[in-house]
Design goal:
This protein is of the alpha/beta class. It contains 25 helices and 26 strands. The two termini are about 55 Å apart. The structure holds ligand C2E and calcium ion (CA) (2 copies).
C-alpha cells in the first residue's frame, strides 16, 4: 500500500511515520507543505492518506476535497488528524470525503486498529470495485452504442457516486453524507433525514429487511470481515432503488463494535438488466407465461414442501390444445400463435395466485395447482377450465372453438422425484386424448406401462459405461459470416436396450447427483478428442471440438493434467479444444475456478461460458472470468424476431460481450429469421436445428466439406 502523510509539523510527521511502520510493509511518503503534497497526489496513486486538519496554506478539509476531485485518488482512503475534538471538524471532514478521524495525542492501539481496518476495507473495496467498475465501464461502453434507445443506462453510469454513512453504535446516531441523502431524493438539511438508524432501516424494502439486518448483525458480531450487501431502499418518490452497501466496524480493545462506517452505491441499473435477463430466461416469449425451467423449479419447491408436510397437497396438470395443428395448417402459424397468446389469460383466470400456469412446449401447457385436498376440488377446477377454454374466439374474422385434453397427477408419498409427477400427468394426458379429447383424466398406477422411472434410470446408468452404452452425437457450429463449419459440440447420448436413446437432460442431472458424471465426463473428453483427431486427419485440420464440463469434474485435482494427457496422446493442439462451463458451475463451485481457468488458458485450451441468459444469468460473471466464447442460451435466441424486449436485452449483452472481446455463439437457431437477427447483432457463430441437430459423426459429412447450401446463408 502507498501511504501519504501531510502535516505542517515535522515532529508530527515523525511520530506518524513511526506508528505507520508498525502496520507492516508499506511505502510511506510525507510532506510538510500541503499544496506541494496535493500536486504530488494528483500524479501518484495513494491508498491511504493521513491529513492534518490545521495547515497554513491549504487546510485538511480543503486538501481532502481536492483529493476527491482527482481521477487517480478520488476513491482513496483518508483519515483526518486533528488536535481538536470538535464535532464540526469531523463532520466537515466526512462531507469532504474522509473515512475516519483521529485526535491527538494518539492512543497507539486505537490508531493501529483504525488504520488496519481502513487498510483492510480498502483492499476489500478495491477488489470489489475493480469488478464493479469493469462491469460498469462495459455497460457504459455498450451504452454509448445504444444511446438513442437506452438513454437511461447512460445516465446511470454517470451516477456512480457513493454515499457515506457513519454509525455511532454507542449513541445510536448515524451520520449520512450529502450524497447518501441525495441518492434517495433528499437535500442535506431535510428534516426527514434525521441522523438516526431508522432513517435508513425504515426505508428498506420489507423483503430485504431481514437479510440486511442479519448481515449487519453478523458483521457487528465479528462473523464476517466486512459488510457487503445488496438490497432495495425506498426513494423519496416512493420507488425502490437497488443499493450495494459496504461497511466495516471499528472495535474497542475488547473487540466490541463501537462504530460502524461504510458506503452505499446505487446499482439499480445493473439489477434491471439482470432482472430482465432472468425474466427472459424463465418466461415464454410468445405468451409471457413461465416456461418449462420456471415450472420445474416451482414444482421442485412444491414437492419439497409436500415431502416435509404431506398436508401441503398439490397437483400437476398437463394440458394439450386439441386442434392447434389444424389451425396452424389451415390459417397459418400466426393464427396459431394468436390462439396460444389468448389461451394464457384464460388459463390464468381459472387459477389462484399461488398456482403456476406455464407453457411447456408447442401446444402444451402445465399447471401447478395447490389446495387439492379433495378430488372434488380438482373436478371443479377442470370443469371450469375446459369450459373457459372452449369459449369461442375470433381469429382472422373466423370464429374458432378449441378444446383441450388434460392429464393430472396428484401429490403422493409414492413419488421419489418431482419429475415422475410430470411423466405420470403426461401418461394421463395420453389417456385423455385416446378417450376422445375434450376431457380430463387423473393418473392411475395401471396406466404406467414399461417406461422407465428416474429411479430405474439411475440404477441402470451405473453400468452404462462398462456396457458401452454411452455414445456421442455432434452438432455443427457455423461461422455466421462464411457459413463454414468451425467445429462441433459433443453431446452425450445413452443407448439402452429397453429405454432406447435417452437424451442427456434425462440422465446428466442424475449422473451429477450421484457423482457418475466424473467418469462419464472423462469418457466424453476421450471420445470427443479422438473424434477430432480423425476429422483433423481426414477432412479439416482447423476444426474445433466443444466439450461440456460439469461442476463435479472440476473437483478432480488432476483434471487439467488428465485433459493434457488425452490431447498429447491424440496429437491434438490445445487451441482446438473449447471447454463449455455453465454459469452455475463457475459461481457455485467450491474450487477456485479462476485458477483452473487460468491454468487452462496458460496451456492454450479455450473456454466458453455456456447457456448464458438461462437461469441465473448475472452480468457479473461476464467480466469476472477470461472466456474465449460466450454461448447465448437458446431461450434468448429462438424466435427472437417476435420479442422486441428480448432483442433489447440481447443487444446490450452482445455489446458487453463484444467489448470484453469474447466471441459470441448463438444456440438454438431454428429459423432463417433467428439467424438474421443474431447476425445483425454481430454474433460470430451459430448452432441450431436450422443447420443441423446433433447427429452421429458419420452423418455429418456435408458439414465437413463445402459450406451448407446457400439457402441457409445470411444476407
Ligand atoms: P447444452 O450444452 O446447452 O447443449 C445444447 C442442447 O441444445 C443440445 O441438447 C442440443 O441438441 C440442443 N439444441 C441445439 N440446437 C437446438 C435448436 O435449434 N433448438 C432446440 N430446441 N434445441 C437445440 P442435448 O443434446 O439434448 O443436450 C442437453 C444438455 O445436456 C446439454 O445442453 C448439456 O448441458 C448436457 N450435456 C450433453 N452432453 C454432455 C456431456 O458430455 N457432459 C455434460 N456435462 N453435459 C452434457
Ligand atoms: Ca453446451
Ligand atoms: Ca448451451
Amino acid at each position: 500500500m502507498n501511504i501519504l502523510i501531510v502535516d505542517d509539523q515535522q515532529t508530527n510527521i515523525d511520530l506518524l511515520e513511526r506508528l505507520v511502520k508498525k502496520l507492516g510493509e508499506h511505502t510511506i511518503k510525507s510532506f510538510t507543505d500541503s499544496p506541494k503534497a496535493l500536486e504530488w497526489a494528483k500524479k501518484n496513486s495513494v491508498d491511504l492518506f493521513y491529513v492534518d486538519y490545521q495547515m497554513p496554506d491549504l487546510n485538511g478539509v480543503h486538501f481532502i476535497e481536492n483529493i476527491r476531485k482527482t481521477p487517480i485518488n478520488g476513491n482513496s482512503a483518508v483519515i483526518l488528524v486533528s488536535s481538536s475534538t470538535e464535532k464540526h471538524i469531523f463532520y466537515e471532514a466526512l462531507d469532504a470525503g474522509a473515512h475516519d478521524f483521529l485526535t491527538r495525542p494518539f492512543d497507539a492501539a486505537e490508531f493501529l486498529a483504525r488504520s488496519r481496518n481502513l487498510i483492510k476495507l480498502r483492499k476489500e473495496e478495491q477488489k470489489l470495485q475493480d469488478r464493479a467498475l469493469h462491469l460498469e465501464s462495459e455497460i457504459g461502453r455498450a451504452t454509448e452504442a445504444l444511446r438513442t434507445s437506452e438513454e437511461r443506462y447512460a445516465l446511470a453510469t454517470k451516477a456512480a457516486h457513493e454515499g457515506l454513512w457513519d454509525w455511532d453504535l454507542q449513541k445510536g446516531r448515524i451520520y449520512y453524507s450529502k450524497q447518501w441523502k441525495k441518492m434517495i431524493g433528499f437535500r442535506e438539511d431535510e428534516d426527514e433525514c434525521e441522523n438516526i438508524p431508522t432513517t435508513w432501516l425504515n426505508r428498506v424494502h420489507p423483503e430485504d429487511y431481514r437479510g440486511l439486518v442479519s448481515a449487519i448483525d453478523h458483521h457487528l458480531n465479528n462473523y464476517s470481515e466486512t459488510l457487503n450487501w445488496e438490497y432495495r431502499l425506498r426513494h423519496r418518490d416512493g420507488s425502490y432503488r437497488w443499493m450495494v452497501c459496504r461497511g466495516i466496524a471499528i472495535r474497542d480493545e475488547k473487540g466490541e463494535a463501537i462504530r460502524f462506517v461504510g458506503s452505499q452505491r446505487d446499482i439499480s441499473d445493473r439489477k434491471e438488466v439482470e432482472e430482465q435477463l432472468l425474466h427472459n430466461s424463465f418466461h415464454d416469449p410468445l405468451t409471457g407465461l413461465p416456461n418449462r425451467s420456471l415450472f420445474n423449479e416451482r414444482l421442485e419447491q412444491a414437492f419439497i414442501r409436500y415431502k416435509r408436510d404431506p398436508s401441503q397437497q398439490f397437483a400437476v396438470l398437463f394440458l394439450d390444445l386439441d386442434r392447434l395443428k389444424q389451425i396452424n395448417d389451415s390459417l397459418g402459424h400466426s393464427a396459431g400463435d394468436q390462439l396460444l397468446k389468448l389461451m394464457g389469460p384464460r388459463l390464468l383466470a381459472c387459477c389462484r395466485e399461488a398456482d403456476t400456469v406455464a407453457r411447456w412446449s408447442g401446444d402444451e401447457f402445465t399447471i401447478l395447482l395447490f389446495d387439492t385436498e379433495s378430488m372434488e376440488d380438482i373436478d371443479h377446477f377442470c370443469e371450469r377450465l375446459l369450459k373457459t377454454i372452449s369459449r369461442p374466439i375470433i381469429i382472422q374474422h373466423q370464429e374458432i372453438v378449441v378444446s383441450a385434453s388434460i392429464g393430472i397427477a396428484k401429490s403422493d408419498p409414492y413419488y421419489k422425484h418431482a419429475i415422475e409427477m410430470i411423466q405420470d400427468a403426461d401418461l394421463a394426458l395420453y389417456r385423455a386424448k385416446s378417450e376422445g379429447r375434450d376431457r380430463y383424466v387423473l393418473f392411475h398406477q395401471e396406466m404406467r406401462g414399461k417406461g422407465p422411472t428416474p429411479f430405474q434410470y439411475e440404477t441402470n446408468l451405473k453400468h452404462a459405461l462398462e456396457k458401452n452404452q454411452i455414445l456421442f452425437y455432434y452438432q455443427p457450429i457455423l461461422d455466421l459470416k462464411t457459413q463454414k463449419t468451425t467445429g462441433f459440440e459433443a453431446l452425450m447420448r445413452w443407448r439402452h436396450p429397453q429405454f432406447g436413446l435417452v437424451p442427456p437432460d434425462d440422465f446428466i442431472p442424475l449422473a451429477e447427483e450421484s457423482g457418475l458424471i466424473i467418469d462419464l465426463g472423462d469418457y466424453a473428453i476421450e471420445c470427443a478428442v479422438a473424434q477430432l483427431k480423425k476429422w483433423h486427419k481426414t477432412v479439416d485440420p482447423d476444426l474445433k471440438i466443444f466439450i461440456n464440463i460439469a461442476k463435479k469434474q472440476l473437483f478432480q485435482k488432476d483434471f487439467v493434467v488428465k485433459l493434457s494427457n488425452v490431447l498429447a496422446k491424440n496429437h491434438v493442439a490445445p487451441h482446438h479444444v473449447v471447454l463449455e462451463f455453465s454459469e452455475s458451475t463457475l459461481i457455485e463451485s467450491l474450487v477456485p475456478v479462476e485458477e483452473i481457468l487460468k491454468t487452462l488458458s496458460e496451456k492454450g485450451i479455450k473456454v466458453a461460458l455456456d447457456d448464458f441468459g438461462a437461469g441465473r444469468a448475472s452480468l457479473n460473471t461476464l467480466p469476472a472470468f477470461p472466456f474465449d466464447y460466450v454461448k447465448i442460451d437458446r431461450s434468448m435466441i429462438t424466435r427472437l424476431a417476435k420479442n422486441p424486449k428480448a432483442q433489447r436485452t440481447l443487444s446490450l449483452v452482445s455489446l458487453i460481450a463484444k467489448n470484453l472481446k469474447f466471441k459470441i455463439i448463438s444456440e438454438g437457431i431454428e429459423t432463417k429469421s433467428d439467424a438474421d437477427e443474431v447476425h445483425k447483432l454481430g454474433h460470430e457463430y451459430g448452432q441450431g436445428y436450422l443447420y443441423s441437430p446433433a447427429r452421429p459423426a458419420e452423418d455429418l459429412k456435408k458439414f465437413l466439406k463445402a459450406p451448407p447450401a446457400k439457402k441457409h446463408a445470411n444476407g
